[in-house]
């Protein structure tokens, strides 16, 4: 665990970058520091590995004041990833990743083997190993930066806006990769960003800082979205807070109807009399094909002959209520088709079922 105990940083010119900050970063979790430009995020992060020393207060790493540990020893146990990766331009990728193992005196083969293992782990093609940083895209360089920080298997990882310099699609994939890695590695991660959506996606807990380096709120994302501590946090969280909160509500309470799916091989005459305006048509393996409008059915034939309307699906048990709602909004029927991990239909969440589930989470509680 990392503990900030009444930490203040005053720069030589008198700027108070961090003011009386107390918080705990639990072991094995991702804690995100988020806030507007100049609120002291980077300063707070760098005080952990002593690239900057606190003016007052203590930072304890597993109970030991970091000021009592000499910086090189301290940093051996702390990986550090920065924006634009900060790779050494004249070293091959494999040697960039092996930087810390070399410094630790590992033999060359062992260090390189470890580097190759990590490149694979962060999702890079091993062909990249012999390239130089300029021969990689920004996103690939960031992955190398993460691999390098993990090389000596440090228990703690500090990440300072690591994904800010890449386009939104690459950024999303880097975020997902980090979550996947973290599920395996369980590092203690402090992640700095100015992007609240990134904070909410990645953080087990999110510390919102205000300018002047004061903590405005520390909470898990659902709590932050449901109960911002004050107007500053509310404004910082931005619009759509209520909708975004639905990402943290499981779809498990959602009632499904099994009677609204019908096989494409069924004859239209078998469904004509139904009171339902829309039916979800599935193939022989129960995979959704689309929605059939009952009033527009032809006089004869099977449902395979009918022109089907677009549909949205959500994965039962994995997607959130937000995913289910999104799927419903993509369907002219206003209902969402629930599928299992293999894409087979499990039933239909109607507007009534969604309304019922939304009713339970409305009002800021129950997330
Ligand atoms: N070496 C320094 N000397 C004086 N003031 C500094 C120094 N480094 C940072 N500051 C000031 O301390 C405050 C906090 O800076 P810091 O870089 O920690 O903020 P930040 O939240 O990471 O900002 P950003 O999101 O813009 O990177 C800012 O007002 C900054 O100008």
TrEMBL record:
What top-level class of enzyme does the UniProt entry assign?
Answer: translocase
Q: Name one Pfam family in it.
A: ABC_tran
User: Which terms in the Gene Ontology molecular function aspect does this entry carry?
Assistant: ABC-type quaternary ammonium compound transporting activity; ATP binding; ATP hydrolysis activity
Source organism's superkingdom?
Answer: Bacteria
Specify whether Cytoplasm is a keyword of the entry. no
Q: What is its EC number?
A: 7.6.2.9
Keyword terms, alphabetized: ATP-binding, Nucleotide-binding, Transport
The name of this protein is ABC-type quaternary amine transporter
Please spell out the taxonomic lineage of the organism that makes this protein. Answer: Bacteria, Bacillati, Actinomycetota, Actinomycetes, Streptosporangiales
